[in-house]
Amino acid sequence: MINGFKEFIMRGNVIDLAVAVVIGTAFTAVVTAIVVNIFNPLIAAMFNAETLAKALPIALGSGEKPPTILLGAVIAAVINFALIAAVVYFVFVLPLNKFKESQDRRRSAGIPAAAVVEPTTELDLLTEIRDLLAKNAAADQGPKH
Membrane spanning segments where (predicted)? Predict the structure, then answer.
């Protein structure tokens, strides 16, 4: 049971997902700060409200404190979502799609993708040294006049 759990945790996609969640949380804080500190005051100023969350109130009854729908808070959430979606699209999705299209065009044109250079191993080096020594030995024993 412990080994199965260890294998599950050590899978690459679990680690990638954890990193994505952490980065997403940090990114959400940045976008929220932008919305709360820039867009909310601008929109609230258009509606003569202290904050966007208090803009466009709709009272659902009468009395001293009737239940109230705060449309400004909904607008703030929609703006927050739109900003996150725009950044994800323009920073991640669009460039990756362009890269994939470029790779597909290269493949269809018969141009190979960038070759991955394999690291030189000790066996490769020893083989190269052997071949050079053999070549030099053959040159030294060549025809003598």
Answer: 12-39, 69-96
